[in-house]
Specification:
11 helices, single chain, 6-stranded parallel sheet, two-stranded parallel ribbon, SDR family oxidoreductase, Rossmann fold, globular, NAD, NAD(P)-bd_dom_sf
Length: 261
């Protein structure tokens, strides 16, 4: 049975682990829901020596802005298959234009993420760049239930997004196909405004959407405001072509229907 070691068993990595296990992989992971503590160096290094493949979903350190996995265990990562969960935020603002894996990176607002993405790329691994992630327990329906939904009047603003199960199937496809190293965008087929998603969700629930407000009136947190500061469409054709991957939820419409309470 092949062994997959995962650094950081978070929301997306947990789905990846489940998908890998269904395909016959043994999975060992660090994190609050994993088997190991990230700081138990002896145990981690022992498991890494047994692993056939390694995946990191650990974000940059907020203080040092360095990559914790590379800082602590980079010398133990000589595996033929290594993956890293990154962000399409590395492409920065493109004023609504399309980006793909050949597009330049390094001029966005997430400096630490861009630096870590570049560090992993330099090691010749598979870097999975993810847009806005949604799925069970993390969707617009949850925001509506909490009364936190907003429609912001920003004509032309679009985002790419991906269902968490499509992240899992994309990484699983890369494991199964022995995909070559490099960047892979895992996003759906239809970049759209957040307002379109809100309106679709409200229609499915049979409720009125919230009124349009300006960005100033929305009173967003700095993190959320930064989200609206970038505008781009993310192409997924390389992942489809090279990995043989097809998203189960090609647009937010299918994804929302699958999540309907």
């Amino acid at each position: 049975m092949p062994n997959l070691f995962i650094f950081g068993l978070g929301y997306s990595a947990k789905r990846i682990a489940q998908r890998a296990q269904s395909l016959g992989w043994e999975v060992v992971a660090t994190g609050s829901e994993g088997k190991l503590s990230f700081d138990d160096a002896d145990a981690v290094r022992t498991e890494l020596s047994r692993a056939d493949a390694v995946l990191s979903s650990v974000p940059p350190d907020r203080g040092s802005e360095s990559d914790p996995v590379l800082e602590r265990y980079g010398d133990a990562l000589g595996h033929n298959w290594i993956g890293y969960l990154s962000s399409t935020g590395v492409y920065g603002d493109r004023q609504g234009a399309w980006v793909d894996e050949s597009s330049p990176t390094g001029d966005g607002r997430r400096n630490a993420r861009m630096a870590c993405d570049a560090s992993w790329m330099e090691r010749g691994v598979r870097v999975f760049r993810l847009p806005g992630i949604y799925g069970p327990g993390r969707s617009i329906f949850d925001r509506i239930a909490e009364g936190k939904t907003k429609r912001i009047d920003l004509p032309g603003q679009v985002f790419s997004r991906v269902h968490v199960d499509d992240i899992a199937s994309g990484v699983a496809a890369a494991l199964a196909s022995d995909a070559p190293p490099g960047a892979y965008n895992l996003g759906d087929d239809l970049p759209a405004s957040q307002n379109a998603v809100v309106e679709e969700a409200c229609a499915l629930l049979g409720v009125e959407p919230p009124p349009l407000v300006t960005l100033e009136e929305a009173n967003l947190s700095p993190m959320a405001r930064g989200f609206y500061a970038e505008n781009r469409r993310v192409a997924n054709l390389k992942a489809k072509r090279v990995l043989g991957w097809q998203p189960q939820y090609p647009t937010y419409r299918e994804g929302l229907r699958a999540l309907l309470p």
